[in-house]
Inverse folding.
């Protein structure tokens, strides 16, 4: 089978490509080829399975048609404009996160092959005046444009699935931490950088108080859940193809304590506390008391501890020689 | 103030225009002008307030810009491809119900005047595996493309409101019955025609069993709720600008009994029972046990009885000489 990862140049897309290339199978079939597609040509991946890379702009239907071809069995749609940028550039957010999703689904529909489509939604679909805790029957009431666009993507995935055009499934990703690489324009970027940079021997800024609670998942477990998400039998998914991906709630203090438990006291000293009102405004609108019962019952999992997340970063991602 | 009704040629649009022209005020201000816009030039309305008509295709941003002008204070967005047609012609449904809504909101945003936008959503946003009864905190899980498009419209209304581009409010209309005029392509069309046609002395087909339960509102009360909906103070609306419009649940048998109570036994004899599987498939996916607590607390209302609905039809809409 052929697997296409749109957003294959991103952190999760690259890790998913590596995992699938190492695994060699998906949905009980051998993977013949993996294609990583992104707005800039993704970094190549080597493995036993051939991995191609392709430059695709999902805002352009012609460009999408180059990647979403009739021989593709499973499409991961991970590409998105992140929360902070979608908030500051509303037009760009809607062009990529809404129209881009439509373009991918329309091309999948045009194939007539009903490919599996795994859509990365976000816990940012939750917010506003809804009762806590957030469960499988909580309404989506996003308080950012990014969250609104992801909620619209879920409606599209359900509708295109119901019409028989795709076999869709969508997962609301927790905030991924510890995320490797550089800080990005996501409002949640600091939730990795306050750990990653200190673990790399670098200074970092924390823009919120240390009792700020949030809902997290490690990159490693996120990738495992995306693999499992593609493998769930369609008949087990019911009328709503979209659900919360499991994570766990921790405060900033708990994150830092976990880092200290794993890596000693020095990294925490590199964190500077500096309030950032615009970041606070966005992230404090997010819900954090989330329950992912449905995904857990379908075999997806959360990390056992945040110490695990820290260890995964050190094992999988920390540069060999800290700067 | 100037009021624009997009979908002003439709049944509710015409009645709303008439009501506003007779009322002469909205949101505590005198109405200087009403504009009825629709895909075909709407029927003119006479009243003390000047009423213009204009042909607008909401799928075309240039056309939208002709109607959504800087002097408009309140925009009613009632235009839509109805459920049955949006299901059979998916492209048309998305073009009008999603892209058309985006075009109207984008033009409203471009004005920079933050107009009030009253969006007609639908109870068709509900469906699938969610707990009954449906209340203000039930997730939207539409089982038709029409419902998906309306749910996306709600997300857009909330997002554009949150960004300060519009003062939006959206109301999920119950099924409107007794709806005057001709049958249309809505899957719910029979829920009026089995009453309207017999009250007009004509035969009608009922495609479902007589114990089929559904959630109804009269056109007269719907219009009152749309007027009230524009008048709710923004600060009373909270983080979700969209809500269920009140209605009441009745079975087909209760509808027919109400007709008999008001108009005698003859009309019911004109109903022929003939199962229509495609209509059944759509309407049986709709939820009917709905609670509109939030809208009721904001002053919107349902009909007291279905006898009232029948009487309103006879008073407001029945042709003078039944065919």
């Amino acid at each position: 089978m052929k697997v296409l990862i749109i957003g294959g140049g991103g952190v999760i897309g690259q890790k998913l490509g590596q995992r699938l290339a190492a695994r060699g199978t998906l949905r009980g079939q051998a993977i013949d080829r993996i294609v990583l597609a992104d707005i800039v040509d993704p970094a190549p991946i080597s493995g036993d399975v051939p991995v191609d890379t392709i430059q695709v702009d999902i805002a352009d239907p012609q460009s999408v048609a180059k990647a979403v071809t009739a021989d593709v069995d499973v499409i991961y749609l991970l590409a998105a404009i992140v929360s902070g940028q979608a908030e500051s550039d509303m037009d760009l957010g809607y062009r990529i996160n809404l129209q881009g999703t439509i373009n991918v689904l329309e091309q999948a529909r045009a194939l007539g092959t009903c490919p599996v489509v795994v859509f990365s939604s976000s816990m940012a679909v939750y917010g506003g005046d809804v009762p806590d805790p957030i469960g499988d029957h909580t309404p989506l009431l996003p308080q950012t444009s990014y969250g609104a666009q992801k909620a619209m993507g879920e409606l599209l995935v359900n509708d295109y699935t119901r019409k028989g055009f795709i076999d869709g499934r969508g997962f609301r990703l927790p905030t991924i931490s510890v995320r490797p690489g550089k800080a990005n324009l996501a409002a949640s970027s600091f939730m990795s950088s306050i750990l990653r940079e200190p673990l790399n021997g670098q200074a970092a800024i924390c823009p919120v108080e240390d009792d700020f609670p949030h809902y997290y998942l490690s990159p490693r477990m996120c990738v495992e859940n995306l693999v499992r998400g593609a493998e769930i039998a369609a008949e087990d998914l019911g009328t709503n193809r979209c659900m919360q991906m499991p994570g766990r709630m921790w405060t900033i203090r708990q994150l830092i304590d976990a880092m200290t438990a794993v890596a000693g006291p020095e990294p925490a000293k590199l964190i500077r506390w500096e309030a950032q009102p615009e970041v606070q405004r966005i992230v404090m609108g997010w819900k954090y008391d989330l329950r992912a019962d449905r995904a857990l019952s379908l075999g997806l999992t959360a990390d056992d501890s945040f110490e695990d997340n820290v260890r995964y970063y050190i094992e999988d991602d920390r540069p060999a020689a800290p700067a």
User: Anything to note?
Assistant: The mean pLDDT of chain B is 96.
